[in-house]
Amino acid sequence: GDSVTQMEGPVTLSEEAFLTINCTYTATGYPSLFWYVQYPGEGLQLLLKATKADDKGSNKGFEATYRKETTSFHLEKGSVQVSDSAVYFCALSARYGGATNKLIFGTGTLLAVQP
Amino acid sequence: DGGITQSPKYLFRKEGQNVTLSCEQNLNHDAMYWYRQDPGQGLRLIYYSQIVNDFQKGDIAEGYSVSREKKESFPLTVTSAQKNPTAFYLCASSISGDPGNTIYFGEGSWLTVV
After folding, report:
1. DSSP code of A69?
2. Is residue A43 very low, low, confident or very high in pLDDT (cuts 50, 70, 90)?
3. Confidence class of residue A71 from pLDDT cuts 50, 70 and 90?
4. Nearest residue, CB atoms, B97 vs list A91, A94, A100
5. Cβ <8 Å between A43 and B90
6. Strands B10-13 and B109-113
7. Alpha carbons B72 and B106: distance in angstroms, whole number
8. Which residue of A36, A42, A46 is in closest CB contact with B107?
9. Is B39 part of the contact surface with chain A (CB cutoff 8 Å)?
10. Rounded-to-integer distance, Cα A78 and Cα A73, Å
11. SS3 at position A84
């Protein structure tokens, strides 16, 4: 079945460091790919998305490129801030029950940025 | 502001009780979802609804029930049959059930069994 694998955390960085969180997926067909962010005690917020191969999603300095050849959607940011500390979830959108949208999530990666 | 409102934020349940989590959206979305999140794990789908008066079981529906009488509302009842209900519950919605549409989430509800 469809699945998402992301690097285990926690990832601990100093402020202004470069961030990469790896995400790979297994899917039949061509899913849409998403990164969500969850701050402590809160729900998930959409960070960025890409709907087809070679698309680049970007938001708030974060970027991820949909790589069909490597089935990857790695999240990157050039200079992290303390306020970026959160759990990041990679997800794909798959058909479920024949027609319905369903998100399949990775287990999440905790990012801790130190001043 | 448009969004998804879940209530209560924190809820405690005694053994053998049913409890209901509220979810309301004013985004005019047709599709709504309930997910469960356990520590260190991703989210798992409990129930989903593509349209009013219709809903389907997700991956972990046992011990849960839902209704969809109004487009904007999708309450989740955690019944006494759910053996391990302590978790973080997230309601979500999308403009339709078509794959690829962005799914938006509420702020979540914490349920603890005491």
Report:
1. T
2. confident
3. very high
4. A100
5. yes
6. parallel
7. 13
8. A42
9. no
10. 16
11. helix
